[in-house]
Task: inverse folding
């Protein structure tokens, strides 16, 4: 790719900086829209909310740090 000065390189700052800014913006908006409240670790709260939303589409994700 001789003619292309903006060839796709793994460390292309013209590509990495906008992507990094977009990721930061998405994380900021996610925090802002949730009111900055941390997620509950109380499973009783999760169970009650799950039952209140009967008839709605639900997505339950179980994540493991390992």
Result:
């Amino acid at each position: 790719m001789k003619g292309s000065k903006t060839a796709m390189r793994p460390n292309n700052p013209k590509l990495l900086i906008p992507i990094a800014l977009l990721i930061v913006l998405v994380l900021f908006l996610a925090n802002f829209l949730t009111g900055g409240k941390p997620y509950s670790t109380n499973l009783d709260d999760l169970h009650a909310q799950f039952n209140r939303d009967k008839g709605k589409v639900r997505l339950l994700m179980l994540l493991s740090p390992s």
Remarks:
- The mean pLDDT is 78.
